[in-house]
Amino acid sequence: GKFRLIPNGLPGVETRVPLLFSGGVLSGCISPQKFVEVTSTNPAKLYGLKKKGSIAPGFDADLVIWYPQTKFQSFKLTNEMLHHAVDYTPFEGIEFKNWPRYAIIRGKVVFSHGEVVGEMEYGQYIWRQKSLLPG
Question: How many helices (H) and strands (E) does the chain have?
């Protein structure tokens, strides 16, 4: 059959961070600082990505900018809103209280107002290095 075409695991790369922002930061369960630590700083350190995970001189200008909370209209997610090649999302119908407005990679806007605007070949593969986390 077509068993080799069945996707592994659960779709959710596009929804993972907005879920944590809505359910964690906006619900008061975690601080914005903890959110950045969990989604950016620590993963960069874990994989030894020395130019990622912080806003500082010498680091890549990789940023996600969220909508101002007072300007954002919450919505219930549908699979049609997503950019993946999967015919479902396990998060269908979940209410999101915010969503990334812009994604910037190395100083260039690649996602704007719900649409991918970056060039397909703009991404770069970065080999992981030894972890920078203690222990």
Answer: 3, 6
Residues 6 or more apart whose Cβ sits within 8 Å of residue 115: none
- In a structure prediction context, what are the per-residue pLDDT tens digits for the chain, which is 135 residues long? 677 777 678 899 999 999 999 999 999 999 999 999 999 999 999 999 999 999 999 999 999 999 999 999 999 999 999 999 889 999 999 999 999 999 999 999 999 999 999 998 888 999 999 999 998
Residues 35/62, Cβ–Cβ less than 8 Å: no
DSSP 51-92: TSSS-STTS---EEEEPPGGGPPPEE--GGGS-SS-S--TTT
Please name the amino acid found at residue 83: H
